């Protein structure tokens, strides 16, 4: 497996990265994603892609279409039955250059070691607060302190050797934005990569209208004022702009889909747990139902052709709604259903 860091340059990217949602369910109810009161129609068991179907699509369609990097997400990927076997099978494919997972970390203390042994090397873990009460409120599980369980999962993943280890923080004004310096300081003597994500209007519209989002540049200025901030020496495959505190072991990433536009370097598509291929997170145009086609016996070459056609038109589909009001529209699938 090839390490995925590369020099700091922004250039148009080949679309070679597939985010796969393994399941739309979750053991958390994050306020910004799938709050307790949200009425969600979960995918029925029979509509989920089976492990075998998913592997077939990766082997026969996505790899031939040029995808070499895969991220497993959800919902919560670690509650997907058979996740370990799936990781092992994907990691063993020769053409797979990068296999990563985005998780809430709750089950990592007991699963990190087996995941590493199965071939996973990169983990992005959500950690929105260092305060147990704020965290429990944010993940919608008041009264049960989950923070220490997630923190133990992060430590375990670090010890097992996951590198890079990234922590994702969705910054919500008045909720956790005052913790930005504390969270940033985690990178000083640990080789962790803390990424601040601007809150997007998918998931909890009420919270978004009440609180809105904090521009990354404002966060950077606070960090600059405290320690100074320089361009990161390495960057990932994704939308984050990478910086670091001078002399720090880790880095700081800023995912700024509200204040900036990184769509010109978009290198990804998304596959939902029920087999819909989506060319853009924030634009619902152009999705294709690969599961139904596969189950109806459409040939692999025909499926490949459909994906290749979608790749051709993806630049036209990439998110263009900033000025035309898409941000206030409602999406038919939420973040937990798309995979972030
Ligand atoms: N607008 C937009 N946001 C994205 C995109 N990819 C990721 N994000 C945002 O970044 C968050 C964190 O993404 P991760 O799942 O950690 O993955 P990543 O940052 O792309 O991963 P790396 O491969 O480690 O760089 C997602 O939940 C989204 O909020 C994208 O293509 N477009
Ligand atoms: C949908 S979750 C799925 C994976 C896993 N359950 C987790 O939380 O890491 C993927 C990412 O989406 C982010 N996310 C969810 N809703 C968001 C929103 N409305 N705005 C910005 N990021 C969001 C989460 O913080 C997480 O980093
Ligand atoms: S952000 Fe992740 S952990 Fe939180 S509710 Fe959404 S899917 Fe679950
Ligand atoms: S908003 Fe769409 S086009 Fe832009 S980076 Fe995200 S997925 Fe790609």
UniProtKB/TrEMBL annotation:
Residues 10-240 form the Radical SAM core domain. GTP binds at residues 19, 71, 102, 166, 268-270. Monomer and homodimer. Binds 2 [4Fe-4S] clusters. Binds 1 [4Fe-4S] cluster coordinated with 3 cysteines and an exchangeable S-adenosyl-L-methionine and 1 [4Fe-4S] cluster coordinated with 3 cysteines and the GTP-derived substrate. The keyword S-adenosyl-L-methionine applies. InterPro entries: Aldolase_TIM, Elp3/MiaA/NifB-like_rSAM, MoaA, MoaA-like, MoaA_NifB_PqqE_Fe-S-bd_CS, MoaA_twitch, MoCo_biosynth_MoaA/MoaC, rSAM. It catalyses: GTP + AH2 + S-adenosyl-L-methionine = (8S)-3',8-cyclo-7,8-dihydroguanosine 5'-triphosphate + 5'-deoxyadenosine + L-methionine + A + H(+). This is GTP 3',8-cyclase. It comes from Planktothricoides raciborskii GIHE-MW2. The lineage of its organism: Bacteria, Bacillati, Cyanobacteriota, Cyanophyceae, Oscillatoriophycideae. GO terms for biological process: Mo-molybdopterin cofactor biosynthetic process. GO terms for molecular function: 4 iron, 4 sulfur cluster binding; cyclic pyranopterin monophosphate synthase activity; GTP 3',8'-cyclase activity; GTP binding; metal ion binding; S-adenosyl-L-methionine binding. Keywords: 4Fe-4S, GTP-binding, Iron, Iron-sulfur, Lyase, Metal-binding, Molybdenum cofactor biosynthesis, Nucleotide-binding, S-adenosyl-L-methionine. [4Fe-4S] cluster 2 binds at residues 263, 266, 280. Its cofactor is [4Fe-4S] cluster. Catalyzes the cyclization of GTP to (8S)-3',8-cyclo-7,8-dihydroguanosine 5'-triphosphate. It holds the Pfam family Mob_synth_C. S-adenosyl-L-methionine binds at residues 32, 75, 126, 200. The gene is moaA. [4Fe-4S] cluster 1 binds at residues 26, 30, 33. Belongs to the radical SAM superfamily. MoaA family. HAMAP family: MoaA_B. It comes from the Bacteria. Pathway: Cofactor biosynthesis; molybdopterin biosynthesis. Its EC number is 4.1.99.22.
